[in-house]
Automatic annotation (TrEMBL):
Keywords: ATP-binding, Cell inner membrane, Cell membrane, Membrane, Nucleotide-binding, Translocase, Transport
Organism of origin: Aquitalea aquatica
GO CC annotations on file: ATP-binding cassette (ABC) transporter complex
Signal peptide: none
Pfam families, per database record: ABC_tran (PF00005), TOBE_2 (PF08402)
Name the UniProt record assigns to this protein: 2-aminoethylphosphonate ABC transporter ATP-binding protein
Coiled coil: none
GO molecular function, one term: ATP hydrolysis activity
GO biological process: quaternary ammonium group transport
Residue ranges annotated for the ABC transporter domain, each copy included: 12-241
InterPro entries: AAA+_ATPase, ABC_SmlMolc_Importer, ABC_transporter-like_ATP-bd, ABC_transporter-like_CS, AminoethylPonate_ABC_PhnT2, Mo/tungstate-bd_C_term_dom, P-loop_NTPase, Transp-assoc_OB_typ2
Amino acid sequence: MKPAENGLSDHLTMHGLSRRFGSFTALDAVSLSIRKGEFVCLLGPSGCGKTTLLRLIAGLDLPDAGSIALQARDITRAAPAQRDYGIVFQSYALFPNLSVADNIAYGLKPRHERQRHRLRVRELLDMVGLPGAEDKYPAQLSGGQQQRVALARALATSPGMLLLDEPLSALDARVRDKLREELKGLQQRLGVTTLMVTHDQEEALAIADRVVVMNAGRIEQIGTPAEIYRQPCSRFVAEFVGEANWLPATACGAQQVRVGNHALRLEAVLPPDPALQLFLRPEDVIIKPRWENAPNTVLARVDNISFGGALTRIRLLPEGMPGQVLYAEVCPGMLDRQPLVPGEIVPVELPAARLLAFAGDLPC
Ligand SMILES: Nc1ncnc2c1ncn2[C@@H]1O[C@H](COP(=O)(O)OP(=O)(O)OP(=O)(O)O)[C@@H](O)[C@H]1O
């Protein structure tokens, strides 16, 4: 077991995992370590290989190359039962003809210890917020309740690892948000190492200790939610996670670019490409109360203001950048202090510390 940077040991280590289906490479030399007690999300668009990777870890499929180690024990080709995990799928996958209690106790052994199992089932139902549901059948439960039962079943044997394949995506938004919070709380209380597959970036950022962004069978970036959101390492990650402004630019110095008629400075290092795309989150665009001759500040016309609850979205048309639209997101409180009206011209700062540059043409 190798101690990781934060003192926690690696629970699961994958090295050079590849999986091909005919001539198609679904996973391409993926290496990843998950620390004990960590909550890791595999995030990426449909078809990027998330489920394939989860299935290799679960032993439901075998890799064409590479290895998987569980606490330094090679489990690459071990049977699923030798891998010490509980699993929850998107579809609730409960046995419809078994009661909730029997569904949860299904994997508990030895089978004759019925009294001990009854106590364990009660404990698990309390844990997942369904006390007293022992005698119900899956058809009598809502989707959210069924997923709670599936979670209880996955945790019944106190596995060292929890594998979750889009467990919340079939639920409606309110149930999903509530269950997401509860799942995170439960995972932290139990300290169970957890790997969850999701294509929902908001979900991944909200729940994970670390996010693994995948694209076309490869890992694009591994980082904390804040690192993934604030410092995307590639165009793909920057486009896939969150909202952003994209401004076509040309390099004109070590950390200087030209956008339309404006010269802008970046703190980030520029890629070695003359044609660039600047990236700036809408909440990092600063609408200033008055004009000052400050760096990275341009004038823009307020084109539209749309109220969005916690944040108001402002569509700006910067002067000297023909055809360019810039979105700013501000707290409603800021607009109380500094009211804006469509048509007015405002100074806008594009902070050097928040601008990133990526090579290439317009994003798709
Ligand atoms: N058994 C299989 N035979 C052939 N191709 C497969 C098989 N399993 C997966 N694939 C292909 O491998 C690629 C990755 O699939 P995978 O299910 O891992 O994607 P995913 O990222 O989990 O996507 P989704 O979010 O849609 O589930 C897809 O193009 C899929 O069609």
